[in-house]
């Protein structure tokens, strides 16, 4: 009496496949997360430029609030950053706009913190949590 030949994975083959998958995941997950964070930062910078264009166009109206859609980043969907127009002072050239991450959102602990853009074109970042803000060029994706 002969047994029919059955094919299956051995435990060794399964362990090797799992080790390869774990190694790939160890490199892929952090890379994916940094890509998502970079995308959110680009959304915030783009939203600031859109809002600045709106404020410049409505300069004679004395804009103090941004209309719906321009007051968040991304423009549609769940907001990751909230935008607001800050009052004019001597240093900002007439207005300043900030994009602050949501308190419980995915960017709440981002080292770039709050993005700022003023009428003179000065870009900046503020991070109230730990004060160690990276270079503006890193946050604004210009490096």
From TrEMBL:
Keywords: Membrane, Transmembrane, Transmembrane helix
Residue ranges, annotated region (Disordered): 119-143
Cited SUPFAM superfamilies: Pili subunits (SSF54523)
Regions crossing the membrane: 6-29
InterPro entries for this protein: N_methyl_site, PilE-like, Pilin-like
Keyword Transferase annotated: no
Protein's recorded name: Type IV pilus assembly protein PilE
Species of provenance: Paraburkholderia ultramafica
């Amino acid at each position: 009496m002969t047994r029919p030949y059955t094919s299956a994975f051995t435990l060794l083959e399964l362990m090797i496949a799992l080790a390869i998958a774990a190694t790939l995941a160890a490199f892929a997950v952090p890379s994916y997360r940094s890509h998502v964070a970079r995308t959110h930062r680009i959304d915030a910078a783009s939203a600031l430029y859109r809002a600045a264009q709106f404020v410049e166009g409505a300069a004679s109206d004395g804009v103090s609030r941004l209309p719906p859609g321009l007051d968040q980043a991304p423009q549609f969907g769940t907001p990751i950053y909230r935008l607001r127009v800050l009052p004019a002072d001597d240093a900002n050239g007439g207005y300043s706009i900030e994009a602050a991450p949501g308190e419980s959102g995915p960017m709440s602990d981002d080292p770039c913190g709050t993005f700022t853009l003023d009428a003179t074109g000065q870009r900046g970042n503020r991070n109230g949590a730990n004060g160690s803000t990276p270079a503006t060029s890193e946050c604004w994706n210009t490096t």
